[in-house]
Amino acid sequence: MTDTPGRPLPDAVVIVLYGATGDLASRMVLPALDEVRRRGLVPEHWAVIGCSTEDLDDARFRDHVAEAVRAGGAGEDNTDAGAWIERVRYAGGGFTEDDAGELPQVLTEVSQQVGDAAGTEPLLVHFLAVPPGAFASITRGLGRHGLAEGSRVVFEKPYGTSLESFEELDRDVKEVLSEEQIFRIDHFLGKEGVQTLYVLRFANQLFGSEWDRSSVEQVQIDVPEDLDVTNRIRFYEETGAALDMIVTHLFQVAGQVAMEPPADLRDPDSVNDARERVLQAFRQLDPAQDVVLGQFEGYRQIDGAAPDSTTDTFAAVRLWVDTERWRGVPFLLRTGKRMATKAQRVTLVLRPPFGPLAEEMDVPNTVQIDISGDGEVRLGITVKTPGPELTYSSGTAVLELDDVPGGEPLSPYASLIHDVLTGDRSLFTTADGLRAAFTAFAPLQGKDRPVPAVYAPGSWGPAEARELPAPHRWMLGE
Ligand SMILES: NC(=O)C1=CN([C@@H]2O[C@H](COP(=O)(O)OP(=O)(O)OC[C@H]3O[C@@H](n4cnc5c(N)ncnc54)[C@H](OP(=O)(O)O)[C@@H]3O)[C@@H](O)[C@H]2O)C=CC1
Ligand SMILES: O=C1O[C@H](COP(=O)(O)O)[C@@H](O)[C@H](O)[C@H]1O
């Protein structure tokens, strides 16, 4: 078992996974539960209960878990997974305020077993991998059926889709839970590359001393995807790229880049506070100057899309962070579906050097952090071209994080689940942070929202988006 320094795992835990047969639970959460188990990041005494609407028995649900874990890529030698899966229980009938289904009975049995074995009452974790429309009803149910007290509750995204719906949901949730019990997931914050951002900055004077407007000309947070949306068209028609990615993931990553130094990096509240506080300095987006939306050609022909749909499948924005550190430095955020490539990169574009070479450098230095997969740090630097002449070449030095001695990257969901178990809230969004994010984003949900420009599938999005990073280009392409 591995505790976060200063943050022990509880002696015993029971995790209830709501929506246990759904897509997210099957593809992400169940494999991540096995990952934390394999890595020794769960207490000795732990159990999982799946809760969903489907009519299954324990045996059939265990088959489902085994298949999810196998498909999640645990590897051929994951033979001991059977031991925990054999203890998994299933509670059918769903769970709402009015009808708790089979859960109370199953939970009583499992808590008793785990508690007896551990000699202490287990911590109860509720993981809500259910459609957002069910968040409020399940939370009220936790209160009404006596399952809220002392528990931790994980909410999937989106926790609200506008400032108003966020406030309404948060009001409902807070009638039952305190802020300290609430863990709002943004899985981008669990990525190794995103977590390395502040360590890179605060542990290395080389970067820490330059992490402001005196050295950084612009910040790019670029997440192009080549994915299609055909299999998620209902969700996509209601959401679009900006709401799905910008106000959620990319704003949080921007907060991670832009935050002021936390008082104590080992204190989750202090880290969380620093990141979420800077969101309050995000200026409201200006749709006329700073936003380009796009829709890929052919989107409206997808079965399920409205023939006159104005849903955005691409969004690029120029965000301004009104703090002393970042005043005047554009944060350029871009994402879209069916683009030329799939990548996830944060780039700090540095100002030209002072001194004798200032006029000669036409390729800017960059600090790049790849936040996909296990993460990578890349330094775009200029060196003397080896040879007899004094000429210059730009190159990239790459550090893959899984090559770091002792490094064994965790997937984002495994990392965040471990944090829930230890009660570390540093990588979870707060109500104040989300309020600030939705406030900055609100102009994109009003009458001034731009009409999406059409772009060719497989491209870098609408041509208009090329202007946003001027005088530079999007570092990943076009
Ligand atoms: N899928 C993904 O890639 C991602 C999903 N998310 C978020 O994860 C959450 C789940 O999404 P996803 O897995 O795709 O959705 P799914 O529809 O695939 O799964 C949700 C499951 O929850 C069940 N459910 C609904 N209400 C209840 C209830 N009251 N009690 C117990 N179970 C219930 C549903 O049953 P039934 O079908 O019978 O209603 C369904 O099995 C959403 O908040 C989504 O926004 C976030 C990021 C990515
Ligand atoms: O939440 C979401 O994230 C994915 C990208 O996630 P990643 O695991 O590939 O980093 C995105 O494709 C999806 O539209 C969005 O809902």
TrEMBL record:
Domain named Glucose-6-phosphate dehydrogenase NAD-binding: residues: 16-195
| Enzyme class name | oxidoreductase
Alphabetized PROSITE patterns for the sequence = G6P_DEHYDROGENASE
* Residue numbers binding NADP(+): 157
List, from the UniProt record, the residues annotated as the active site of this protein: 249
Pathway where this protein functions: Carbohydrate degradation; pentose phosphate pathway; D-ribulose 5-phosphate from D-glucose 6-phosphate (oxidative stage): step 1/3
Which reaction(s) are listed as its catalytic activity?
A: D-glucose 6-phosphate + NADP(+) = 6-phospho-D-glucono-1,5-lactone + NADPH + H(+)
Tell me any Pfam family this protein matches. Answer: G6PD_C
Cited InterPro entries: G6P_DH (IPR001282), G6P_DH_AS (IPR019796), G6P_DH_C (IPR022675), G6P_DH_NAD-bd (IPR022674), NAD(P)-bd_dom_sf (IPR036291)
Residues engaged in binding substrate: 187, 191, 225, 244, 337, 342
- Under Enzyme Commission nomenclature, its number is 1.1.1.49
- Family the entry assigns: Belongs to the glucose-6-phosphate dehydrogenase family.
Q: Which HAMAP family match?
A: G6PD
Function text: Catalyzes the oxidation of glucose 6-phosphate to 6-phosphogluconolactone.
Report what the protein is called.
Glucose-6-phosphate 1-dehydrogenase
